[in-house]
Amino acid sequence: MTKTRRRVGSKRSARRKRLSCLILGAFDSDLVAIERLLASMGIQPVVMSDLPSRGVTLSDKMKHVFSSTDLVIAIIDPEPVNANVAFELGYALALGKRPLIIARHLSQQMGQIVCN
Predict the structure, then answer these.
(1) What's this model's pTM, rounded to 2 decimal places?
(2) pLDDT per residue over 6-34, tens digit each?
(3) Nearest CA to 51 among 62, 39, 43?
(4) Distance (Å, rounded) from C-alpha 90 to C-alpha 84?
(5) Which of 10, 21, 64, 116 has most Cβ atoms within 10 angstroms of its Cβ?
């Protein structure tokens, strides 16, 4: 009598949800490098500013996006600070997400605020 081995690993990988990462950044930010890096790691990049908003309120869109993504990366340009990115970052923090914050071109004053 021959035992048949099941391929458990393949079933697990088929059921495993692909990680997704929400990227917050200003419209003029070049996020292509981050998107490519995430994709190369098997993580689905989601850029908030690229998502359609027709027929959906901003609060509903944000609730859906933040609840359906696993990771959050925020790109902060401190001079001038983008109000939309700051709001979305605050929303992520309020939901208990722990975002990775990438701050570009920090001035000495902004560095003191971040460190305190």
Answers:
(1) 0.68
(2) 444 444 444 556 789 988 887 666 788 88
(3) 62
(4) 10
(5) 21
